[in-house]
Each structure stands twice: as C-alpha cells, then as structure tokens.
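Consider the following assembly input.
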Amino acid sequence: MKPLVYIISAPSGSGKSTLVNELRKLVPGLDFSVSYTTRRPRGSEQNGREYFFVPVEDFERMIGAGEFLEHACVFGNYYGTAKRFLQDAEKHGHDLLLDIDVQGAAQIKRQLPEAVSVFILPPDKQTLEWRLRHRSQDSQEVIHKRLVAAAKEIENYPEYDYILINDRLEQSIDELKAIVLSERLRRSQARLSPAETEIVATAERCLLPNIRGRLQPILASFAVSVTSTRG
Ligand code: ADP
Ligand code: 5GP
C-alpha cells in the first residue's frame, strides 16, 4: 500500500519541532523524512538526525540527478526531501512525515494530491515572539526577521487541510495525533469503535472549514487579512 504522506509546516517558533518529536514517540509506523540542507548545523544538531548537512555543490548535483521529491530555497539556503524516504516508507509499510516549508508543501501537493497537510499556528504574534525569545537560540535581529517571515508564511494557511493552533501543548499533541490516526482510519474504511469516533471528531475540529472562526484574531495579530487570502 502507498504510504500516507503528512506535511507539516509552521512559522519558526510555533512549536513544530516540539509537536513532531512528541508525535513520533506516540504513533508507530510513521517515518520522518530527514531533509537535506546547505545551511550549517545549529546548536546540538547532528548530521543525519535533524538534517543531512551538505555543501551547495552536492545539493545541486542531487537536484541534477533528480533525487529530490521537492526542494526549495528557504532563508537563503537550499532544503530538500529525498525521494528515497518515500520509497523506504513504502518498502516498510510505513507512513511518512515531512517537516517542510510552504513552497515544498505546494510542490508535494501537486505531485501527491492525497497528501495530508497541517499548518501549525501560534496563538498570536506576541506568544510567538515570547517563545522565540525563551528558546534562546536567536539574536534580537534574527527574531525580528522570523516574525516578519512568519506573517508571509501564515498567508498560505488556506492551502492546508488542517490548522492546528498550538496554544496548550498537551491539547495540541492530542490533536496532531488525532489528525494522523483519523486519516489512517479514514483510509482503512473500518467500522469505528467509540474511541476511534472520538479521535475522528478531535481531528475534524482542526479541519480548515471547521476552525476558520478561531483564526481571525490570530491573523489580525500578524496583520494578515482574511480577505487578502483564499480563506
Ligand atoms: P519550531 O520547531 O516551530 O521552530 P519549537 O518546537 O522549537 O518551534 O518551539 C519554540 C519554543 O516554544 C520552544 O522553546 C518550545 O519549548 C516552546 N513551545 C512549543 N510549544 C509550546 C506550547 N504549546 N506552549 C508553550 N511553549 C511551547
Ligand atoms: P530550519 O533551518 O529552521 O530548521 O528550517 C527552516 C525552514 O525550512 C522550516 O520552515 C522548515 O520546515 C523548512 N524545511 C526543512 N526541511 C525542508 C525540506 O526538505 N524542504 C522544504 N521545502 N523546506 C524544508
């Protein structure tokens, strides 16, 4: 069976890594695609764990050889998803999780329209700024750049299937897990137990049309207009 592909995108500092790390502990049979990038490792990052860190020449050779499912330039560096992760997931009967930006998400959706996409939003701009500061990874200048970039990325939310507002961490973990499991349940077409019905209901609350009513104040805090987007 073809793997279910889950795309997760978010502005930096929204809590994507935190949520994805928890999800990977909770859901079996879900492979994580380790991207290639030309940026330098940060902090405790290890080659082959967070990313494969490669020189620009190697990345461009991989583009030429058609080794990427998608690739994009983000903040001045190349990032790409190798096709082999999808092939390996299929070989093992696993699903695949992609942590990629909005450009990569659009490329994947064109190639694999059935891929499930999730956009993670912070509760508002002030909270995002607070989280970026408390993560203590970036200078004030970088934080400012991330906040400006966040508003641009958030404009793309209408392209996603699910929106997860990462306010209370435990609830967000439950919601992300529910999204992954409910898509598996939908595909299996099995009769749902009461517990499974509850999982599907939790996931459905995050579907874009169902969460739209909660988005307005978040978008306003980033000065993203609801009417300027397809939302
Ligand atoms: P991203 O991967 O999106 O850049 P991180 O996962 O590094 O973001 O999270 C940014 C910071 O916010 C981290 O310090 C993390 O511990 C914290 N954080 C993540 N989710 C929450 C949450 N729901 N409530 C409070 N703090 C959070
Ligand atoms: P960071 O350098 O902070 O880890 O990631 C910067 C951005 O690049 C994030 O939005 C992240 O989702 C995105 N990204 C990471 N890997 C890939 C990838 O393989 N393809 C694309 N298109 N974006 C990626």
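The first strand starts at residue 5 and ends at 9. Ask yourself how this observation constrains the way the partners meet.
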